[in-house]
Amino acid sequence: MRNKMIAGIVLSAAALAAAPAGAANWTKNVGICAAAAESEGVVTAGAYRAKFVTGSGAATKTVAIELIPDSGDAITAECKIRRGEVTEFTVKEA
Q: What is the pLDDT of residue 5?
Protein backbone atom coordinates (compact mmCIF):
# COMPACT_ATOMS: atom_id res chain seq x y z
CA MET A 1 0.00 0.00 0.00
CA ARG A 2 2.77 2.41 0.94
CA ASN A 3 4.71 1.65 -2.28
CA LYS A 4 1.62 2.41 -4.39
CA MET A 5 1.20 5.69 -2.54
CA ILE A 6 4.83 6.65 -3.12
CA ALA A 7 4.57 5.70 -6.81
CA GLY A 8 1.50 7.93 -7.13
CA ILE A 9 3.34 10.84 -5.54
CA VAL A 10 6.34 10.34 -7.85
CA LEU A 11 4.07 10.28 -10.93
CA SER A 12 2.25 13.40 -9.76
CA ALA A 13 5.54 15.20 -9.18
CA ALA A 14 6.76 14.19 -12.64
CA ALA A 15 3.59 15.55 -14.23
CA LEU A 16 3.97 18.84 -12.39
CA ALA A 17 7.62 19.11 -13.33
CA ALA A 18 6.74 18.75 -17.01
CA ALA A 19 4.13 21.53 -16.97
CA PRO A 20 6.43 24.57 -16.79
CA ALA A 21 8.19 23.65 -20.05
CA GLY A 22 5.05 24.46 -22.03
CA ALA A 23 4.51 27.60 -19.99
CA ALA A 24 8.02 28.75 -20.85
CA ASN A 25 7.21 28.52 -24.58
CA TRP A 26 4.14 30.72 -24.14
CA THR A 27 6.16 33.19 -22.09
CA LYS A 28 8.62 33.43 -24.97
CA ASN A 29 5.75 33.98 -27.42
CA VAL A 30 4.27 36.70 -25.21
CA GLY A 31 7.61 38.50 -25.37
CA ILE A 32 7.76 38.12 -29.15
CA CYS A 33 4.22 39.49 -29.51
CA ALA A 34 4.93 42.38 -27.11
CA ALA A 35 8.02 43.29 -29.14
CA ALA A 36 5.83 43.36 -32.28
CA ALA A 37 3.41 45.71 -30.49
CA GLU A 38 6.33 48.02 -29.70
CA SER A 39 7.59 47.97 -33.29
CA GLU A 40 4.06 48.73 -34.56
CA GLY A 41 3.90 51.74 -32.20
CA VAL A 42 0.97 50.36 -30.22
CA VAL A 43 2.84 50.65 -26.90
CA THR A 44 5.97 52.40 -25.67
CA ALA A 45 8.86 50.23 -24.52
CA GLY A 46 9.07 50.04 -20.73
CA ALA A 47 5.71 51.77 -20.20
CA TYR A 48 3.54 48.65 -20.05
CA ARG A 49 3.42 45.00 -19.00
CA ALA A 50 2.26 42.12 -21.16
CA LYS A 51 -0.11 39.46 -19.82
CA PHE A 52 -0.83 36.10 -21.50
CA VAL A 53 -4.51 35.65 -22.39
CA THR A 54 -4.74 32.62 -24.70
CA GLY A 55 -2.58 30.54 -26.96
CA SER A 56 -3.02 27.78 -29.50
CA GLY A 57 -1.38 26.17 -32.46
CA ALA A 58 1.45 23.87 -33.40
CA ALA A 59 3.71 25.03 -36.24
CA THR A 60 2.05 28.45 -36.29
CA LYS A 61 1.20 29.66 -32.81
CA THR A 62 -1.59 32.13 -32.15
CA VAL A 63 -1.12 34.06 -28.93
CA ALA A 64 -3.39 36.73 -27.48
CA ILE A 65 -1.91 39.12 -24.95
CA GLU A 66 -3.16 42.03 -22.90
CA LEU A 67 -0.90 45.07 -22.95
CA ILE A 68 -1.41 46.91 -19.68
CA PRO A 69 0.09 50.43 -19.74
CA ASP A 70 1.34 52.26 -16.68
CA SER A 71 -1.59 54.65 -17.22
CA GLY A 72 -4.61 54.30 -19.48
CA ASP A 73 -6.70 51.45 -20.79
CA ALA A 74 -5.41 47.96 -21.55
CA ILE A 75 -5.08 46.83 -25.16
CA THR A 76 -5.59 43.26 -26.37
CA ALA A 77 -3.39 42.14 -29.24
CA GLU A 78 -3.08 38.87 -31.14
CA CYS A 79 -0.02 37.53 -32.94
CA LYS A 80 0.53 34.62 -35.26
CA ILE A 81 4.07 33.38 -34.71
CA ARG A 82 5.96 30.91 -36.88
CA ARG A 83 9.56 29.93 -36.17
CA GLY A 84 9.97 32.78 -33.70
CA GLU A 85 8.80 35.43 -36.19
CA VAL A 86 5.52 37.34 -36.09
CA THR A 87 3.69 36.72 -39.35
CA GLU A 88 0.53 38.63 -38.40
CA PHE A 89 -0.17 41.23 -35.72
CA THR A 90 -3.65 42.58 -34.92
CA VAL A 91 -5.12 44.77 -32.21
CA LYS A 92 -8.47 43.55 -30.92
CA GLU A 93 -11.17 46.15 -30.53
CA ALA A 94 -12.74 46.41 -27.07
A: 38
